[in-house]
User: What shape does this take?
Amino acid sequence: MRRRSVNTPSVLASLALAVALAACAGTAGDPTEGASTMTPAEPTPSGNDPQLPVGEVPTELLEAIVADAADRAGVRAQEIEVTAAERVTWSDGSLGCPEEGMAYTQALVPGYRVVLEAGGDQLNFHSSESGDFRFCEDPQPPADAPVDR
Assistant: This one.
């Protein structure tokens, strides 16, 4: 009988996503706290570019990212402005947010790039297609970013 191997990084990523989603679930107190009225069909685009591809990011993922950004910025989710939200391919498991001393899967990772504005500050979030997202202080471009010539 063959024993099936378990893909540990996938299991860990799924577990991390479940914990993150549970943490974003409603809490006691203000029922509107952390709630977002944004949907991919009706983004809050910046005044500079009305053609942002916000619809490329799943609603649940975008709402979780906006909630995280609101917590980080100390503002309500309704005060967060989506300035970019697009499907991308990351060059490795760091999702374009490498940390010194960390090792990452060396494979292309489909995902999303979300840029938000909160109180005049730009917040960058990178995500895998499965929904694992992270705040990125020093964002790197995706593998499929256009090359300037």
Residues 44-149 form one domain.
